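Assess this one:

_____
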Amino acid sequence: SFLTGIVLLGESQNRKSSLANTIFGEAIFKLKEFNDAKSFTTEAKTKFVNGRNFTLIDTPGLFDSGRPQKTVKSELMRCMIESAPGPHIFLIILKVEKYTEQEKDVIAKIRRYFSDDALKYAAVIFTHGDQLPEGMNIQQYAAQSDGLWELVQKCGGRCHVFDNKYWRNTEEEEYRSNKFQLAELFKTIDKILIKNKGGHFIKKHIEIEEEKIRQSTNQSPNDTRDRAKSTVPNGLMILIVGSATGAMVGAFRGNSTPQDALYGALKGSQLGYIAAAEAKTVVDAILKAAQAALLGECKK
């Protein structure tokens, strides 16, 4: 069945891991703490839920203040590879509380790194639902803040609210239950997939830019695609190129049997993204990834 890759983004204390466990219906993901260096790692799990295979990519607080840039870059690359061929959906996790300058900064970093096109694939998910004022739904809550409402609107008006502590088994009010919100979230996921024709963020970003270029210039198809690719945020392009180069070299090294080639591609992809974390340009990423895959142990 079609595999849907979903990336969870947000600050460490916003209970992303708890939300991932709620979506999967069991405690699969480990809870992460900001000060625990061992917990700063991307975790991906796949499970058949609601009639579809989902891969949830639970990221650490990638955009928390104080994170070393080198470490953040490495984990972003891991995140994108885990969601290969590319994220189908982003869930931006916030808390039901005042929309702070710190959270605004996190959202700005997300938009800067992934571009505003990513918001076409995104929904805003609020945790700590027990803090939602009585008689108010989450749309009404978000509309109280101009900045927060702008974010929700850029995400197509898509937002939901969960409480991973108090709403687990409640039946007192339909809206204030994770069961109800989860059913609504799955509907939102389907709508995002239908709207984007099942495509993933990176591929769609390039296709949109290609169409814009075709309408304004008379360039050849190859030149048009090359120019469109150049609009992908530099960090993502380094990621894509590094992992793809590593995978290609790894598959070549492991080509004695189909199984060895597959193993080599997977191992090469891992080596490629680790090496590309040190790169500052796309060309540098290619060189570093290829060298790492050639020198690495890509066979069984």
Observations:
- DSSP finds eleven helices and six strands in the chain.
- The two ends are 28 Å apart (CA to CA).
- The longest strand covers residues 3-10.
- Residues 201-295 form one domain.
